[in-house]
Amino acid sequence: MKTKPVKIGRNTLCPCGSQKKYKNCCRNKKIEISIKEEYKRKYDILLKEPHQIQSIKKCGELLISILNNVEKMIKPGLKTEAINTFVHEEIIKAGAIPAPLNYRGFPKSVCVSVNEVICHGIPGERFLNDGDIVNVDITPILEGYYADASKTFFVGTPTKEGKKIVSVASESLKRGIQTVAPGATLGDIGYAIQSYAEACGCSVVREFVGHGVGIDFHEQPQVLHFGTKGKGVTLVPGMVFTIEPMINIGKRDLHVLEDRWTAVTNDGAFSAQFEQTILVTENGWESLTPFEL
Ligand code: MF3
Ligand code: CO
Ligand code: CO
Fold first, then answer.
1. Is the peptide bond before 221 cis (omega within 30 degrees of 0)?
2. Which of 78, 210, 222, 283 is deepest in the core (most CB within 10 A)?
3. Distances (CA, A) of 210 to 31, 84, 124, 186, 245
4. What DSSP state is assigned to residue 24?
């Protein structure tokens, strides 16, 4: 026999025994649970619980401490392989795992992308030269949780073009992050980045995007770095995703090298990128991999 569910009034005392009104107590939890189920079903987006956010944040702290130490190593004459060795060892020492290693056949523990390399540079025999720019993109897995962030550094004395593209890429990420709040949309983030970068005379790479992160390396949603205000999925508290605009000083066209990973600009001109892992909070956002932009 089927029984009819009992309808609980908004203003009656909550059945959980809290002595609060139902509308101020478990009714909210019910709404939270239903949003969680809706985002999973409609978009395959995994909203994170507080304990999961704590774990991603802990992973992010490890990531940022390693990234800060990488920054100190950067100088002309350094082999990109040395960055891989350092990052790999630091991650292992912390009891974590480098997510890139063997990820879909990626052969190293960190992405190191110099000058015209947009992303997914494989560290190896390339040496850093004075005036280069170099992005280092780190993703540890700590206690099963992922955090993902990157920065572009100057090697020695920056050139005029180096200064410009690094500044525009950094400010693009900053503006993208600052649009994040419950009720804003993914399109708002893309619009903020694209409108700024293009107004600076730069171009936005479209083939690579930000992504949900935390329980897996690349989760839903895709976070485009171009777009239209008000379009795309509405942001809700508990969403965790990266924003990681790749900005070119020349044209946005690219190709991938024979190694099947290294993405480079067709015109050979500089590309720069900054990435952080961002949590949507009740009031706005929190970076789980914070650094100054
Ligand atoms: N860390 C990159 C990102 O931001 C992904 C690198 S995939 C790898 O999404 F295999 F190249 F490591
Ligand atoms: Co990423
Ligand atoms: Co990354």
1. yes
2. 210
3. 28, 23, 25, 10, 8
4. G
Q: Are 183 and 234 in contact (CB under 8 A)?
A: yes
Output phi, psi for 137, to 5 deg: -115, 115
Whether residue 16 contacts residue 30, with contact meaning beta carbons closer than 8 Å, is answered with: no
Instruction: Using the mean position of ligand 1's atoms as its centre, give its distance from the Cα of residue 261 in Å.
Output: 10
Q: Is 241 in the pocket of ligand 1 (CB under 6 A)?
A: no
Nearest atom in ligand 1 to 208's CA: 9
Determine the 3-state secondary structure of 75 from DSSP: coil
Ligand number, closest to the Cα atom of 110: 1
Cβ of 244 closer than 6 Å to ligand 1, yes or no, is: yes
Ligand 1 contacts CB of residue 245 (under 6 A): no
Helix (H, G, I), strand (E, B) or coil at 196: helix
Protein residue with least CA distance to atom 1, ligand 1: 137
How far is the centre of ligand 3, averaged over its atoms, from the C-alpha of 149 (Å)? 5
State whether the beta carbon of 148 lies less than 6 angstroms from ligand 1: yes
